């Protein structure tokens, strides 16, 4: 657990020298935040504006990451919000945003790197995705869609648990 106490803040660098001079320096920096893809559809407009707005929100949230170059990673959060009328089921709108970030990460490997890409980086990007979805929906003529905060640590833990269960099932089926 002593290693956890040495975690660095984004953009900070671990001092070199001393007995830990052999270890690679921990480096983390957010280089760029950008919208990778954006889509908005209101297939039943303008008729949808003539009735009372009684939304039923279906939200889908996914993350993915890929290595771009040495120590450089792209992390993408995909938010899909489909809003239907709660009484008729008619689609009011569909908003989809892929919010991305380019990160430089060095000195972090294995499970710690996986957790950084799967939980920490999405936590940094999500406020930008929330704002983008909210703005997009508002520009479509609908009331703002204020997405609740997301616990990416819990999502990451659930994904890892599912992967472990699938591995156990696959191993059990081969014996």
UniProtKB/TrEMBL annotation:
Pfam families: SecB. Belongs to the SecB family. Keywords: Chaperone, Cytoplasm, Protein transport, Translocation, Transport. Transmembrane segments: none annotated. Residues 1-17 have a biased composition (Low complexity). The keyword DNA-binding does not apply. It is found in: Cytoplasm. This is Protein-export protein SecB. Homotetramer, a dimer of dimers. One homotetramer interacts with 1 SecA dimer. InterPro entries: SecB, SecB-like_sf. The keyword tRNA processing does not apply.
């Amino acid at each position: 657990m002593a290693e956890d106490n040495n975690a660095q803040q984004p953009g900070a660098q671990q001092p070199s020298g001393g007995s830990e001079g052999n270890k690679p320096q921990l480096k983390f920096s957010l280089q760029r935040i950008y919208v990778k893809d954006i889509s908005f559809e209101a297939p039943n407009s303008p008729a949808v504006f003539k009735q009372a707005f009684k939304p039923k929100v279906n939200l889908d949230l996914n993350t993915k990451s890929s290595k771009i170059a040495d120590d450089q990673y792209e992390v993408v959060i995909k938010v899909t919000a489909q809003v239907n009328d709660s009484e008729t089921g008619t689609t009011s709108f569909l908003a989809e945003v892929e919010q991305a970030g380019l990160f430089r990460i060095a000195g972090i490997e294995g499970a710690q790197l996986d957790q950084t890409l799967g939980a920490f980086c999405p936590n940094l990007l999500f406020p930008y995705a929330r704002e983008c979805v909210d703005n997009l929906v508002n520009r479509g003529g609908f009331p703002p869609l204020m997405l609740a905060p997301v616990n990416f640590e819990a999502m990451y833990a659930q994904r890892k648990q599912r992967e472990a269960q699938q591995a156990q099932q696959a191993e059990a089926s081969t014996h």
